[in-house]
Amino acid sequence: MLIDDSRTIRRSAETMLSSEGCEVITANDGFEALALIHRHKPDLIFVDIMMPRLDGYQTCAIIKNNARFRKVPVIMLTSKDGLFDKARGRIVGSDHYLTKPFTRNELLRAVHELLPSSAVA
User: Fold this and answer.
1) Residue 120: pLDDT above 80?
2) Cα–Cα distance, 23 to 17 (Å, whole number)
């Protein structure tokens, strides 16, 4: 699953992941994502930090506080790469942190690291 309020980021990441055989579900924000998570039960979640209504930190915290989805890896996506931002992501339970703009290889490497049994290279 990819949660980002930027249509460009959603389409770019979806294209990169789909070309490697991943099924990608996208959401515009945290509220939309929470409904989709229950319906689709994703194996991995990418979440932007800076979003309206429910930001990435809040979205990640809600996911990680739900016993059903606690073990689903969450990767924070952001242009904010400061130490404080990374620490705050860890506090709310994120498993990895990718800084925008990211490359195809960085995106796929993150998937492979958090889902080693996946066929993604």
Assistant:
1) no
2) 8
